[in-house]
C-alpha cells in the first residue's frame, strides 16, 4: 500500500509541492518572527497542505539561523484539558537549549508554573478578550482548585507569570515555529480551545504558529461550538495571514495514477482494444473524480487490495473505473453492483421484470444529480463500462430514462472473453474476489479444455459432474461451461476442438433434461455459430474436419445433438422447407454435409429402436431425418416399429410436441402434420386408437394415454368443422 501520510521529504513529491514549500519557507525567513504570529495553511482534506508544510519546515530546519520547529498534534492528546501541558512539554526543551546555564533553572520553573497555573485552560478566562472569546469574568468557574497549592497559585498573578515568560522568550536567538496539523479533525469544542490556546495563552514573542486546516470544516466547527453565525470571521481574529494550497493539475494527478497503476498492470500483455479502453478510463474518470493527492493514493491502494488478487480475471479498465467510483461516490458504486448483478439475470433468462428498467434509471439519475449536457455526458461515459446504460431514452425524455436498454444475452456473452465488469461470469470478481455463484473460474474452463485434448475420459467425467451441479439461477453448471467455451472460441485449438467433440458426443444429450430452454429446445443443440458446434470453424484442415465429423456421426451417443446439427445444416443448405443461406455462412461444406447425412441415416437404422426412442427430442430426430429428403425412411422405420399396439402407443407418445398458452401452461400433444408425415394419416391413427380403447384389458395408464390422443384428434376435427361452417 502507498502510505496515506503527508510527505516529509522531497523524494516522494509527485506534484511539484517542493517548489511551493521552498517559497513558503522563504516567506517565513523574510519576515520578522520575533513578535510571533499565526499563519493558516488552508486546503481540503487530502489536498497536500500537510505535505507542503512538512517540506517547508524541512527547508527551515536546514537553515542554521532559521527557526526551530515543533510539530504539535492536538488530536492525539487524549484529554483535552491537557492540551496546554502537552504544548509546553514540547516547547520547554527547545526554549531551554537556547537559554544560558544561569537562566535555565529559573526559566524551567517559570514554564512549569505558567503551564500548571493555566492547567485546564483556566487562564483563558483572564485573557479571553484577547482571543475574542465570550467567557471573560468566569475565572472562578475554571479555577476550582483545592488545598494549599490552589491558594499558592491564586496568590501569583497569571498575568505576572505571562509577562515574566514573555520577557524570557524575547531573548531567544532562534524563533520557534509550532506546526499544528489537522486542526479540522478535532471536535468543535476542542477546535475552539486550541484557537484560544494559540491566541490567548501561548501568544509569545519568538513563537509563531502554522495551522493547517480545511477552512470550511473549521469554520463550521467554530460556528457550532460558539453558536455564532460566521465562523470564518472569528478565525480572522486568530489567523493573521493565510495561504491556500493550490489545486493539483488534473493532468499531473492522472499521470501519477497511471504511473502507479502501470506497476500493477503489465501493459505489454494487453490487447490494443484493452489498452485503448484503459487509456479512456484514466482520462474520463480521473478528470471526473480525482481532485487531490489523497484521491490518487486511495484509488491506488484500493486497486492493490481489490485488483491484485484477481488480476487476470478482470478487465483493468473496468476495475480502475470501479475503484475510482468506489473511492469517490459510494452510492454510485452500490448502484453499479446492483446493476451488474441484475444483468447476470438477463444473461440467464433474457428477462427483466416490468418497471425495473425505469426504477433503476431513476435511481441512477438521482445519484448522478446532474442536468442537461453534463448529465448526458456522464451517462454516456458509464455506458462504456455498463451495457444497457445509454442516452437514447434520456435524450428522448428524462422521465422515460431507463437502463437494461436494448440488451440481450448475446451482448453479455460478448463480454466474456474480455472479462468485463458486466460479464455474467466475471462481475463477482470485481466485488468479492470470487467467481459468481453458479459460475466457473477461467482456469476451470482452461483445465477442462486441456483435459479434452489430453485425457478425454477424465473430461467426460468432469462434464457429467457439471451436469449434476445445479445453479442458483437455474440450469446446470455444464451449460455455463459450454457458454464460456464458445465465448473464448478464438483461443481454442484444433486439438482441443477434436477432443471436445468426442466428449460432447459421449455426454451432451445427458444435459438436455436439466437445461433451460428457449421455445422448448436447448440452444446448445443448434448447429450455429455462437453455439458449441460452431467451434468446427476452428478446424481448418479439411482432412481433420472430415475425420472428426465421420467419427462424431458414426459413434457418438448423443444422437439428439447429431439430429440438431443435421436439421440446422439442412435448413442452411436449403435441402428442407427453407431457402438456402449464402454458402459463405455455411458451417459445413456440401461434401461434408453429404458425408454426415449418410453416416447419420446409417446410424439411425443401426441403433436399436428402444435406444432411439429414448433419445431426447425424438420427434426432432424424426423431422431431421424426414427433411433430409428421405421421406420414406422415417415412415418405414415407424411402420416396422409399431407392429404391436404397445409399440404403436410408445412411438406415438414419443412423437408429441410441446405447446403453451396463458391458460393451460405447457402441454405435450400429437400434431396433425406428425400423423400425416410419419403415419398413415389422422383417420388411420384415430381408428387404431379407437380399437385399442375397446380392449378391456388395457392398463389405466395405457387407457389414459389412448384417451388423451383421441381427445386431441377430436379437438382438431371440431375446430375444422367450425372453420368450415364459418
How are the SSEs placed, and which strands pair?
Blueprint: H1 17-29, E1 38-42, H2 49-61, E2 68-72, H3 83-96, H4 101-117, H5 123-131, H6 139-142, H7 147-155, H8 158-169, E3 176-180, H9 188-201, E4 207-213, H10 215-226, H11 231-236, E5 241-244, H12 250-262, H13 272-289, H14 293-306, H15 316-328, H16 330-349, H17 356-368, H18 372-383, H19 392-396, H20 409-413, H21 429-432, H22 442-454, H23 456-467, H24 477-487, H25 494-507, H26 542-555, H27 559-573, H28 590-606, H29 609-613, H30 618-627, H31 632-640, H32 645-654, E6 657-661, E7 665-669, H33 672-678, H34 682-693, H35 700-725
Parallel strand pairs: 1-4, 1-5, 2-3, 3-4
Antiparallel strand pairs: 6-7
Helix pairs in contact: 1-2, 3-4, 4-8, 5-9, 9-10, 12-13, 12-14, 13-15, 14-15, 15-16, 16-17, 22-23, 22-25, 23-24, 23-25, 25-26, 26-28, 27-28, 27-30, 30-31, 34-35
Compact description:
With 726 residues, the protein is mainly α. It has 35 helices and seven strands. Pfam families: KAP_NTPase.
Amino acid at each position: 500500500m502507498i502510505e496515506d501520510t503527508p510527505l516529509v521529504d522531497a523524494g516522494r513529491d509527485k506534484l511539484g509541492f517542493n517548489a511551493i514549500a521552498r517559497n513558503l519557507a522563504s516567506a517565513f525567513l523574510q519576515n520578522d518572527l520575533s513578535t510571533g504570529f499565526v499563519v493558516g495553511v488552508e486546503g481540503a482534506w487530502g489536498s497536500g497542505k500537510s505535505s507542503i508544510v512538512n517540506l517547508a519546515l524541512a527547508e527551515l530546519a536546514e537553515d542554521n539561523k532559521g527557526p526551530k520547529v515543533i510539530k504539535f498534534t492536538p488530536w492525539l492528546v487524549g484529554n483535552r484539558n491537557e492540551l496546554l501541558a502537552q504544548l509546553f512539554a514540547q516547547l520547554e526543551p527547545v526554549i531551554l537549549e537556547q537559554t544560558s546555564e544561569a537562566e535555565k533553572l529559573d526559566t524551567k520553573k517559570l514554564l512549569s508554573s505558567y503551564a500548571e497555573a493555566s492547567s485546564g485552560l483556566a487562564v483563558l478566562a483572564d485573557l479571553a478578550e484577547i482571543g475574542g472569546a465570550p467567557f471573560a469574568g468566569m475565572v472562578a468557574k475554571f479555577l476550582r482548585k483545592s488545598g494549599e497549592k490552589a491558594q499558592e497559585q491564586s496568590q501569583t498573578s497569571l498575568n505576572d507569570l505571562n509577562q515574566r515568560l514573555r520577557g524570557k522568550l524575547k531573548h531567544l536567538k532562534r524563533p520557534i515555529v509550532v506546526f499544528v496539523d489537522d486542526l479540522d479533525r478535532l471536535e468543535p469544542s476542542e477546535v475552539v480551545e486550541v484557537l484560544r490556546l494559540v491566541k490567548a495563552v501561548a501568544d509569545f514573542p519568538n513563537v509563531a504558529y502554522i495551522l493547517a486546516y480545511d477552512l470550511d470544516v473549521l469554520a463550521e466547527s467554530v460556528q457550532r461550538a460558539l453558536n455564532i453565525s460566521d465562523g470564518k470571521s472569528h478565525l480572522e481574529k486568530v489567523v493573521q495571514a493565510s495561504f491556500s494550497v493550490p489545486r493539483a493539475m488534473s493532468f499531473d494527478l492522472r499521470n501519477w495514477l497511471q504511473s502507479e497503476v502501470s506497476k500493477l498492470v503489465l501493459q505489454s500483455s494487453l490487447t490494443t482494444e484493452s489498452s485503448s479502453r484503459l487509456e479512456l478510463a484514466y482520462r474520463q474518470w480521473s478528470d471526473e473524480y480525482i481532485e487531490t493527492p489523497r484521491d490518487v493514493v486511495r484509488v491506488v491502494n484500493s486497486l492493490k487490495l481489490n485488483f491484485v488478487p484477481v488480476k487476470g480475471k478482470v478487465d483493468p479498465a473496468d476495475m480502475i473505473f470501479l475503484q475510482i467510483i468506489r473511492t469517490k461516490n459510494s452510492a454510485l458504486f452500490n448502484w453499479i453492483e446492483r446493476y451488474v448483478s441484475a444483468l447476470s439475470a438477463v444473461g440467464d433468462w433474457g428477462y427483466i421484470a416490468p418497471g425495473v428498467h425505469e426504477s433503476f434509471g431513476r435511481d441512477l439519475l438521482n445519484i448522478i444529480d446532474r442536468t442537461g449536457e453534463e448529465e448526458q455526458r456522464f451517462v454516456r461515459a458509464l455506458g462504456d463500462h455498463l451495457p444497457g446504460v445509454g442516452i437514447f431514452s434520456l435524450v428522448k425524455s428524462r422521465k422515460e430514462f431507463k437502463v437494461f436498454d436494448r440488451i440481450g444475452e448475446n451482448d453479455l456473452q460478448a463480454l466474456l472473453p474480455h472479462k468485463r465488469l458486466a460479464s455474467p461470469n466475471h462481475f463477482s470478481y470485481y466485488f468479492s474476489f470470487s467467481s459468481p455463484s453458479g459460475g466457473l473460474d477461467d482456469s476451470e474452463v482452461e483445465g477442462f479444455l486441456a483435459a479434452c485434448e489430453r485425457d478425454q475420459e477424465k473430461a467426460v467425467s468432469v462434464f457429467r459432474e457439471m451436469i449434476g451441479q445445479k445453479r442458483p439461477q437455474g440450469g446446470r453448471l455444464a451449460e455455463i461451461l459450454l457458454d464460456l467455451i464458445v465465448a473464448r472460441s478464438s483461443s481454442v485449438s484444433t486439438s482441443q476442438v477434436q477432443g471436445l467433440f468426442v466428449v460432447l458426443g459421449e455426454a451432451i444429450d445427458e444435459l438436455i433434461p436439466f437445461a433451460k430452454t428457449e421455445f422448448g429446445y436447448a440452444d446448445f443443440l443448434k448447429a450455429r455459430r455462437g453455439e458449441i458446434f460452431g467451434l468446427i470453424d476452428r478446424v481448418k484442415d479439411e482432412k481433420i474436419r472430415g475425420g472428426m465429423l465421420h467419427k462424431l456421426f458414426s459413434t457418438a451417443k448423443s444422437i439428439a445433438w447429431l439430429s440438431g446439427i443435421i436439421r440446422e445444416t439442412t435448413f442452411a443448405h436449403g435441402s428442407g422447407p427453407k431457402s438456402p443461406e449464402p454458402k459463405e455462412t455455411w458451417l459445413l461444406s456440401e461434401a461434408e454435409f453429404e458425408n454426415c447425412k449418410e453416416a447419420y441415416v446409417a446410424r439411425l437404422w443401426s441403433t436399436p429402436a428402444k435406444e432411439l426412442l429414448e433419445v431426447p427430442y425424438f420427434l426432432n430426430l424424426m423431422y431431421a431425418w424426414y427433411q433430409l429428403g428421405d421421406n420414406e425412411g422415417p415412415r418405414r422405420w415407424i411402420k416396422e416399429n409399431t407392429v404391436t399396439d404397445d409399440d404403436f402407443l410408445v412411438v406415438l407418445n414419443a412423437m408429441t410436441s410441446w405447446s403453451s398458452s396463458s391458460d393451460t401452461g405447457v402441454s405435450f400433444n400429437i400434431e396433425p402434420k406428425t400423423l400425416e408425415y410419419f403415419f398413415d394419416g389422422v383417420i388411420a391413427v384415430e381408428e387404431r386408437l379407437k380399437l385399442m380403447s375397446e380392449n378391456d384389458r388395457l392398463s389405466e395408464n395405457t387407457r389414459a394415454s389412448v384417451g388423451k390422443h383421441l381427445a386431441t384428434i377430436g379437438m382438431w376435427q371440431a375446430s375444422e368443422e367450425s372453420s368450415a361452417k364459418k
